[in-house]
Amino acid sequence: MRISSADQNKVYDLLVIGGGINGVGIANDAAGRGLSVFLCEKDDFAAHTSSASSKLIHGGLRYLEHKEFRLVREALAEREVLLKKAPHIIRPLRFIMPHQPHLRPAWLIRTGLFFYDYLGKRETLAGSNNVFFDPEKSPLNNEISRGFEYSDCAVDDARLVILNAMQAREKGATLVTRTQCIGAKKDNGIWLVDLQDQQGIYRIQTKALVNATGPWVANFIQDQLAQQPEYGIRLVQGSHIIVEKLYDGDKAFILQNNDGRIVFAIPYLDQYTLIGTTDQEYHADPNQIEITDFEIDYLIRVSNEHFKKQISREDIVHTFSGVRPLCDDESDNPSAVTRDYTLSLSKQETNDPVLLSVFGGKLTTYRKLAESAMHQLHPYFKQMRGSWTKDALLPGAEDLESIAQLIEKIKEKLPEIDELLAQRWAHQYGTRVFEMLRNVHNLTDLGEEIAHQLYEKEIEYLIDFEWAISAQDILWRRTKLGMKFTYSETEDLEQCLIKLHRLRVKEQAA
Ligand SMILES: Cc1cc2nc3c(=O)[nH]c(=O)nc-3n(C[C@H](O)[C@H](O)[C@H](O)COP(=O)(O)OP(=O)(O)OC[C@H]3O[C@@H](n4cnc5c(N)ncnc54)[C@H](O)[C@@H]3O)c2cc1C
Hints:
The chain is α+β, with helices and mostly antiparallel strands. Helices cover 32% and strands 25% of the residues. The protein has helices at residues 5-9, 21-32, 69-85, 106-118, 157-170, 217-224, 293-306, 366-377, 403-413, 419-429, 433-436, 456-466, 471-478, 487-509, and strands at residues 11-17, 37-40, 56-57, 90-98, 129-132, 146-155, 174-176, 180-187, 190-197, 200-211, 233-244, 252-256, 262-268, 272-276, 280-281, 316-327, 342-346, 354-359, 449-451, 454-455. The radius of gyration is 23 Å and the shape is globular. Bound molecules: flavin-adenine dinucleotide.
């Protein structure tokens, strides 16, 4: 919904453009330090790269080969920090790397794993070890007899974005979706920023502008600000396929390929295996990205070279694709382009307002990236408070003792509830589930069931607290029910959303 005209007249400290993980991370950190913050996202939160990742909070074992020690150290330490901040959406994950001596020698992998174990602070995650596979029980082809095991974490990427957006709002920030920044100009020490939503164009004033537009970062500087970007951006496509699970158990596999790249096979939503990712140079419009035939064949081939269970195109139940907005370091090989982030602060004349642009970055390091952004902005906002996000729990992690206990509490409140639904809610909402279940005393109070245990009450909560507007917002970014919904069930959800939105408008008019 459009903000009030009083808010349009105010001069914000910070206007953040882009509602991916980096934009919401910066908005959240800044709001918690007492700055007045406005964020606009042209589509939905996490609509692009931040929901198309491999969903890992990881140090990036492979980046050690490219000597990215700064990034790996920071990312390794962040695993433990983020695990504590949001244990409902982040879980420890053991990775198995089958040993292929002709690809990487054992001493090299052991050295890498030694660094991995000790480079960053590790408190709860287990260290690495050797593994030997029982040919009877192993899901891997029988010629693979040994390997290595180490720890990283899995995350619900889109929900990490939503939780940061919620926390930013709770700290006083204003965040709007379906609102595109179409231009900004400097005027007497401030930015005049033009935003376009469904109702038309309006203007916001701000002392500093943060360009967190991910794959659009360089184009935004050229087209909307009429300036030259300080750095180039390399767009590198990465895609995943989802198939019915290839093996039992809760461990992931990191598969080496003979082109030097690696592919993950990760247990996904109990029922599936997520296989990805690829690294292909991308030159088209990031809005239109889709998995290519080459990528599908590549992922199927790597999977079949490792697992006993063979797959073909017919086994694919879903695919998704994203572009990594990487800072161009002029590497020849897309896999070797730095995964680290660069922040560019520009202020051409003394009286000019500040522009901070984000190049690159990973989900894993979003919090540290936001802290760096605050550090760079500090000289212009001397009143800003100190860093706070390291120990602050994200929404839903408050009073959360364990997921098992939360599931029991949900069942105490609603004894007739299905176990799988209680599990889904506990992981998605953490303790905020009780906000959703306010005034709910029995299953009837949940309202109409659209399909697959998605009830009206949950949809209302997602509209009121999580900016959900369309069926796609709910099915792919607030939940992962998109894996289950058919075309006609999705239509039913759209109808329900139209009805609920109309009701909201009537209530507001009354
Ligand atoms: C295949 C793949 C796998 C990955 N796997 C991992 C992983 O496992 N772990 C990890 O840590 N990282 C991973 N990453 C990296 C990570 O996903 C990205 O670095 C991160 O999501 C980038 O976030 P962002 O906020 O910079 O960009 P985005 O998420 O793309 O957000 C930018 C937002 O800006 C908005 N925007 C653009 N222009 C405008 C405008 N003019 N006005 C308003 N809004 C605008 C866009 O709509 C978009 O939502 C992976 C990336 C890819 C592609």
